[in-house]
Amino acid sequence: MNLALWIVAGLLAGAYLLGGVFKVVMPKEKIAAAGSSGRWVDDFSTGGVKAIGAVEVLAAAGLILPAVLHIAPVLVPLAALGLVMLMLGAAVTRFRRHELKLVVLDLAYGALAAFVVWGRFGPESFIS
User: Where are the transmembrane segments (predicted)?
Assistant: First the structure.
């Protein structure tokens, strides 16, 4: 179970780090031009898109660094919980935009993050 949690957290961290950096450094117009999956940025200001990217980068760090450095490891499930909430918001945004296939993807990412929340608060907790 511990290994599965590390693998899921690592994959999520990699995905959110890449996606977050992309949102922080790319202009909003280029994100929108990246295809149908990027049209959600039309619902947000440039600052809002950058803020979402920054939250994703911080969450990616929070999934891994506290446990590896043994500094406040309770932040791991809290970072995962933040991602669950972020992905619920993403799913609502996609649903409002009638992007139903992408809602499923957002909910899948949210479910993986929820698995980390459950595992790190529950059976494989870092909290002693």
Answer: 6-26, 47-69, 75-95, 102-121
Q: Determine the average pLDDT of the residues in 93-97.
A: 94
Burial state string for 9-25 with b = 16 or more CB within 10 A and e = fewer than 16: beebbeebbebbeebee
49 close to 28: Cβ distance less than 8 angstroms? yes
For residue 127, being part of any structural domain is answered with: no
Residue 59: inside a domain: yes
Within a domain: 29: yes
Please check the confidence at residue 98 and state whether its pLDDT lies above 80.
yes
Q: Does 64 map to a domain?
A: yes
Counting the structural domains of the chain, the total is 1
pLDDT in tens, 49-59: 999 999 999 99
User: What angle, 0 to 180 degrees and rounded to 10, lies between the N-to-C axes of helices 75-96 and 2-25?
Assistant: 60
Q: Indicate the pLDDT class of residue 13, thresholds 50, 70 and 90.
A: very high
Q: CA-CA distance, 96 to 108, in Å (whole number)?
A: 18
Q: What's the whole-model pTM score?
A: 0.92
Task: Answer for the pair 60, 76: CB distance below 8 angstroms, yes or no.
Answer: no
